[in-house]
Amino acid sequence: MTAPREWAEKDFYADLGVSSSAKADEIKQAYRKLARENHPDKNPGDKAAEDRFKRAATAYDVLGDEDKRKEYDELRRMLRSGGGFGGAGFPGGFRTTTSAPGDFDFSDVFGSASAGGGFGADGGLGDIFGGLFNRGGGAGRTARPKRGADVETEITLDFREAAKGTTFPIQLSGNAPCTTCHGSGSRSGHPVTCDKCGGVGYITQQQGAFGLSQPCDKCGTTGKVIEDPCPSCHGTGTVHRTRSITVRIPAGVIDGQKVRLAGQGEAGPNGTPSGDLFVTVHVRPDAVFTRDGDDLEVTVPVSFAELSLGGTVTVPTLDSPVKVKIPAGTPDGRTLRVRGRGVPKRGDSAGDLLVTVQVKVPTTLDPAATSALRTYAQAEKDSGFDPRAGWAGNAK
């Protein structure tokens, strides 16, 4: 998962090959195409394809999430304005490395903001990025609670489970809320306001026109102090344990896609919010079906007579089988479309079922069938039919 501090040096739209005005469906389709083409299972040993696959997954993690995409777009707009932050009243502009007095380093800016520091007291960079990424803060603001760590795990599903959607039980080991103090860290359940920072979480020192903020060393930026630590968690509010949760996988998930479960990561300290759980889904190939986006593909073996004379065949789907009519004179390899019997989409719609007919040639024939076939072959020749007419310049 890419942190906001890394976004400034990445062009996620270029990584997916879409414009910055692309709709959500366009972004999803672009990601699915790149993931399918560059998946390591299809390109063993190809480091370039593996890198493209990882970049696409990282880009979709941001652009596929509405809130993250808004933050990313806002950052891009801010960096383009006046060539950086130079046009906003900061001398020297905004650069990615610190090479001269007046320059700003991305790591300094984001690092200070995330710790509650930075130029916060007078509307400086701490306020700008604090508002954009909901971090940091300036004078008069209360401390932003820390949150628990995000957790990543992987699961493997059958093709049909991924296409139709399913639930999947997993076990996670990590920090969970303490059941004794209910996550507060306090035996009484009532942490007190830090008297050193006044509950703000940081201490500000005025330096000319700017206020330099530093994390409070007494409360660790939480703004609260535990005076009666819980004996079970020793005041942290969390304990390490294994828990079981059921993950709901939406219909249509593709191989390599991540599913985000908000608040299902590790618990935050002292009752603060939990992190998120990111589940990477791997999909096993199916013996019958493949897919192209939301369309389900299947190849059906048929006889020469069924293609020549026409007929009806029964075709499997993700649910109950359907009957597909084959028109007389259908060529081998033709694909027939059945509307709405493909991979489910959001709502009540679904992709299509694409049925490709493929002639199955018998390897042995009994005498009666052989005689009948010879009679037909002669009649076919007598009618003037030439299967190679117009092929290879009518070579004889």
Automatic annotation (TrEMBL):
Domain J: start-end pairs: 11-76
Zinc finger map (CR-type): 165-242
PROSITE patterns attached to this UniProt entry: DNAJ_1 (PS00636), DNAJ_2 (PS50076), ZF_CR (PS51188)
Record keywords: Chaperone, Cytoplasm, DNA replication, Metal-binding, Repeat, Stress response, Zinc, Zinc-finger
Subcellular location: Cytoplasm
Binding note for cofactor: Binds 2 Zn(2+) ions per monomer.
UniProt-annotated binding residues for Zn(2+) 2: 194, 197, 216, 219
Pfam families recorded: DnaJ, DnaJ_C, DnaJ_CXXCXGXG
Residues that, per the record, bind Zn(2+) 1: 178, 181, 230, 233
Location of the CR-type domain: 165-242
Domain topic, free-text comment: The J domain is necessary and sufficient to stimulate DnaK ATPase activity. Zinc center 1 plays an important role in the autonomous, DnaK-independent chaperone activity of DnaJ. Zinc center 2 is essential for interaction with DnaK and for DnaJ activity.
HAMAP family: DnaJ
Family from the record: Belongs to the DnaJ family.
Protein name: Chaperone protein DnaJ
Organism: Corynebacterium guangdongense
Gene name tied to this protein: dnaJ
